[in-house]
From TrEMBL:
GO cellular component: a single term: cytoplasm
Function field: Required for maturation of urease via the functional incorporation of the urease nickel metallocenter.
Compartments, record wording: Cytoplasm
Similarity section: Belongs to the UreD family.
Name of encoding gene: ureD
Species classification: Bacteria, Pseudomonadati, Pseudomonadota, Betaproteobacteria, Neisseriales
Keyword Manganese: no
UniProt source species: Aquitalea magnusonii
InterPro entries assigned to the protein according to its UniProt record, in alphabetical order: UreD
One Pfam family, short name: UreD
Protein name as it appears in the record: Urease accessory protein UreD
Record flagged with keyword Cytoplasm: yes
Principal cellular location given in the protein's record: cytoplasm
Amino acid sequence: MNMNELVSASPLPSGLMAGWPAALELGYAVVQGRTVPVHRRHQGPLRVQKHFIDGHGQCQHIVVHPPGGMAGGDRLTLDIDLAAGSQVLLTSPGAAKWYDGFGRASSQQLRVEQQPGSLLEWLPQETILYAGSVVALDNRFQLQGDARLLSGEVMCLGRPASAERFDRGCWQQGSEVWRDDKLLWCEHSHVPGDSPLLASPVGMGGHSVLASLLWAGPALPPELHQACLALPCAGRAAASQLPGLWLARFIGDSAEAAHHWLRACRDLIYPFSHGRAASQPRIWAS
């Protein structure tokens, strides 16, 4: 089969060109026992690099935003569709930087549709919110049947290494996970730069990095849950097994420490979630 026949790279409708939006649609399916991209449409500066298929048939793709950062008024939209049985890992080449918008809001909307038997890893690199950025992030995962999801993110508020605190702007985020049209998980955050939650012990406690790892699938065995809790951590970490999903959280002051802990959790649960030992995308080592 000629793979060029499977990929659509036509531009999105010109009516979406107001301002400087960027949009990306990706579709995946199983072909001859391997997951391959079968649909791709893009508008503006949002692309994927050439895909890589590992020895287990999983398709790994790197989502790239060539400008390297989002200015005020920028809008990113990602629509991802996994056909039945497909296995996909999506990551990014580096940190997503959201600059001071000088009063102009910027946004990212992620929409994922997963058919039965599919397995998605959504594991971008860290997101850095500069002081003054006004950012709205919206993630919605729709799982059908026994589809599984492993989603992780690392949020950095301000740039402590540059003596910059997130004391201006606003971070707003909504995250939802649905299975068979029933809501499994819903979380909405609204954190202005001057929010008391940033310093409160029931909030960020003065720390600047917040990370999470979410597994939507069969409940983790108690011993695996405890093994994740026992991992060394350069910050504060916790995890909870909830109906239909497992959630781990990290709070600290280092994106590197957050990635180290979340990826260690991923390595531990991978034989349970994927039925094999974990491997890491090559881009994470660069």
